[in-house]
Amino acid sequence: QVQLVESGGGLVQARGSLRLSCAASGLTFSKNTMGWFRQAPGKEREFVATISWSGSLSNYGDSVRGRFTVSRDNAKNTVYLQMNSLKSEDTAVYYCAADPSGNPYTQSTLPNRYTFWGQGTQVTVSS
Q1: 124 Cβ partners below 8 Å, 6+ apart?
Q2: Residue 23 half-sphere exposure toward CB, CA atoms < 13 A
Q3: Which of 10, 21, 44, 113 places its Cα 20 to 30 Å from the Cα of 60?
């Protein structure tokens, strides 16, 4: 079965950095658009970043653009989220997700486009 396992979360001070990883198994990783979403307590799930099959195309939520970078290594079946200049408002559970329904250029920003989800990793930014 498909598994997405996030890692790399933790507690970090404001203006610090973290790198999240999401290891995928049970799917043809190189033919899935991958995405990162986050959800803070009492808030809806928010789009963070998405990356196309080859990694050549990416898109970001307005609140993270310029600070976060999404990348992928298809040889390792892993997608990454490099988070720099972290703010307290970045505190949330971060989820990776896979969308197998698109094409090589697809960048999916809506959570309902994604079929498979990880369990999430907590990121806490202290001010």
Answers
A1: 10, 11, 12, 91
A2: 4
A3: 10
